[in-house]
Design a protein that fits this description.
By secondary structure, the protein is α/β, with parallel strands linked by helices. The protein folds into 2 domains: about 170 residues, 3-Layer(aba) Sandwich (Rossmann fold); about 90 residues, Pantoate--beta-alanine Ligase, Chain: A,domain 2 (2-Layer Sandwich), CATH 3.30.1300.10. The protein has 10 helices and 9 strands. β2, α2 and β3 form a beta-alpha-beta unit. It binds pantoate. Pantoate (PAF) binds next to β2 and α6.
């Protein structure tokens, strides 16, 4: 696996592959790699002749009170992991390469960025949309892969690619979970062992809300109230628990007439967990 650190070297290497007609898959990451990222790489390998992984801890998507400073950075371990999974190229730019002096452009996806995580992490999705736009323009992949665990992010990236006419397909990859259901996340490493034992309750509650609403689509308000109570009782500090349209994230009062998603974020101690499940009412299957 080659490692490149400049946009010029990235473009140089990709141009050769593109000239020989090879399909290119892009997996943007911030490092801290786990099996969820490997699922994105595997999806890329099954669709594309070449897979490029980017590793960049993007400062513009962290608020001043967030964990930019402590975000796990273990570059050589990450590169070893990627090398052994058949990745062709890793792009690992420095901050100054991505954000040169006087960088002053922001990509904002209105509407989709505003609720859910966007309401609690101000500016977060502007940072994500800006860096992802840059990565897509730098690499011009045929397909780019994003995990469904960050469902709002996935829809935002899909929308920005469409709105900016970027000739790339954005593919969502199902969430990878621990045997007890907890979604894999780089931030799970922050959980104490006592918190780790409680964490699967988060998934249990979300899954239960989704399953109940598939049988009783009109019970959204009741289920949200129940879910918040259960999570609080288990020791979570709930940031949001909502049911939204699965395509445009519009709030819904009932889950019966279109695919929906239950989405939540909650703190367990100092660790912020997010997750989501599809709600597919029987009438639509
Ligand atoms: O999901 C992530 O790891 C990041 O938000 C992304 C998409 C790599 C942009 O920095």
């Amino acid at each position: 696996m080659r490692v490149v650190r400049t946009i010029a070297d990235l473009r140089d290497r990709l141009a050769g592959w593109r000239r020989s007609g090879e399909r290119l898959g892009l997996v943007p990451t911030m490092g801290a790699l786990h099996a969820g990222h490997m699922a994105l790489v595997e999806a890329g390998r099954s669709d594309c002749a070449r897979v490029v992984v980017t590793i960049f801890v993007n400062p513009t998507q962290f608020a001043p009170n967030e964990d930019l400073g402590s975000y796990p950075r273990r570059e050589s371990a990450h590169l070893d992991m990627l090398g052994s999974t058949g990745v062709d190229l890793a792009f690992v730019p420095a901050t100054a390469e991505m954000y040169p002096p006087q960088f002053s452009t922001l990509v904002r996806v209105g509407g989709l960025s505003e609720g859910l995580c966007g309401a609690h992490r101000l500016g977060h999705f502007d940072g994500v949309a800006t860096v992802v736009s840059k990565l897509l323009i730098q690499a011009l992949p045929d397909i780019a892969y994003f995990g469904e665990k960050d469902y709002q992010q996935l829809l935002i990236v899909r929308r920005l690619a469409r709105d900016l006419d970027l000739p790339v397909q954005i593919k969502g990859v199902p969430t990878v979970r621990e045997p007890d259901g907890l979604a894999l996340s780089s931030r799970n490493a922050y959980l104490s062992s006592a918190e780790r034992r409680i964490a699967p309750q988060f998934v249990r509650v979300l899954r239960s809300v989704a399953e109940t609403l598939e049988r009783e689509p009109a019970a959204v308000a009741r289920e949200i109230e129940w879910g918040r109570r259960e999570l609080t009782r288990a020791g979570f500090d709930v940031e949001y628990l909502e049911v939204r349209d699965a395509v445009d994230l519009a709030p819904v009062g009932a889950a019966g007439s279109r695919p929906c998603r239950v989405l939540a974020a909650a703190y367990l101690g100092r660790t912020r967990l997010i997750d989501n499940f599809p709600i597919m009412p029987a009438s639509l299957t």
